[in-house]
Write a structure and sequence with these properties.
globular, CRAL/TRIO_N_dom, SEC14 like lipid binding 1, RIG-I binding, SEC14/CRAL-TRIO_domain, GOLD_dom_sf
Length: 677
Amino acid sequence: VIKHYESNARFIVGQGPYVAYERRFPTCHLIPMFVDSEVLEETESEDGSVHNVQRRCKLDVDAPRLLKRIAGVDYVYFSQENTLNKRERTLHIESHNETFSNRVIIHELCSYSAHPENEDWTCFEQSASLDIKSFFGFESTVEKIAMKQYASSIKKGKEIIEFYLNQLEEEGISHVPRWTPSLDMENQTGTPDEFSKLCVCVVDKLDADYIKRYLGDLTPLQESCLIRLRQWLQESHKGKIPKDEHILRFLRARDFNMEKAREILCQSLTWRKQHQVDYLLETWTSPQVLSDYYTGGWHHHDKEGRPLYILRLGQMDTKGLVRALGEESLLRHVLSINEEGLRRCEENTKVFGRPISCWTCLVDLEGLNMRHLWRPGVKALLRIIEVVEANYPETLGRLLILRAPRVFPVLWTLVSPFIDENTRKKFLIYAGNDYQGPGGLLDYIDKEIIPDFLGGECMCEVPEGGLVPKSLYRTAEELENEDISLWTETIYQSASVFKGAPHEVVLEIIDAASVITWDFDVCKGDVVFHLYHSKRAPQPPRKDPLVGQHSSITTPGGNNVQLIDKSWTLGLDYSMVESPLTCKEGESVQGSHVTRWPGFYILQWRFHTMPGSASTNLPRVDDVLASLQVSSHKCKVMYYTEVIGSEDFRLVAVATCISGFPYWRLAGGFIYLHCWT
């Protein structure tokens, strides 16, 4: 995103970016390889709103002299077509190579457009494809040269447009009027108000006071990423979306890479829904053994207003807690701590009048020894870190590790690879009593609230810990049967869907009046959901030969099963009983079907290819270059199905509605409410 040049409160607005872009031609000194260009054809629509220019560009590609001699050329020629739509305020640029087009195919698309959330910003999107059929045995060399040139051109794109905007400013051009349609009402249809709507687009943007009060400093690019990701969530989840502060954490965790942030946020929202994490603070009751022996708790706040959590890890009997509670209870307790931390951040934001989005954690390692390196305990710690890292990014503002003993490097070696690099940068480690000196604890925490066990005067209510009595230990069988796992055991199943390899689930129906229900989340990619009926029993689950190409298909995190035999004919061997339902990435879909016949019903998730659209996906340079070499055709869904007998089910049909995230959506136009007697 390029923000228009600003100097002395003047802006280059209207058609400024296009005027600046046109100054690149016929040649541009900022692009050394761009030698020359000539206009082949230039046209304009009758109303002057669309301007089309076709050019032939001459490039001096930075390639080895030997390669040029073998190829027999000194220059490479490209055809370029520019289409300026003044009404829609867009500029589309499409180019392809003329030279060696029978050996190498290069296709590039670029576009400039007014930002949908702030008309004073210009969006620039660029993508390209490279197909090398043959090139005198130098295919690999040509590929490297093409990628190098392409990466270089992207990096210089913003620099070049700003150079010419500056040039316009220096020439005293601070305003380039926008195009307006003819006001000759005899030759046009519509009212004057409608004409004005064609020229002026009023859009929302984040209020500056709101940003300062609740979000903190954001660059225009960061603000744009937040707005676009929030808009995508609104479209996918129909209104019920996380707060801006929560979305912003995921963006910051991925350096504001939209695609990566969206992926992990979508996965986290699915995880929260499946395990009812939003209700954890209301539903989770800490066992007494945790209250007595878990040496952690909240303690005031640091100098920056961040909530302060204290963990006396050295005094904690990790082995005893794991043996007495199991990993699941420990995980739930840690998640409740994180949920409480989010609540306290919101509270402190109101108290201090500035954004507080993370907390400070003080870990006292006094008493840490080899007993804490008990393998099952370390394993539990690593798994907890994994869940927290994935679902609570950028919530740790600072981690103060005090009184680190000699055994600490061993624990750090085991744990640090599982901690995000950005998080590790927030760690401050003090050995012995170093925390009492300059640069120590007093730099981050007020003297009045330093806990008594660290030499302060403030009483700390964190339990002192001690050894958990062995009488409280429970067997593995007792722990396993206690509750549903938050790790991997869930009523939901995971499946991978590939291009050409759908995932299918069969349900045998005996009672013709039964109800099939489904609930699934599209974690990655877009899918089409089908429901079929067959009188014949499908063959036992088999793996498609295509699946062998994907190593992840055999992992517990995702499987792929196909049941409909390729020899079957739709309409003869099986029939469609629900219209296909296209589901986008991030959607949560629930629905029901009342069966009319006994037999076998097959639920199918099929790969769906969406039309190319970059309005919500703005890949980085690395992502674009990677796409030239790797094509991903994988989707992932997490689903749950159930068959309810007619004797246990009372059906209420209501008009289709969408209630937010999660929302009800099914083919057929009805929602079925389940009622059990």
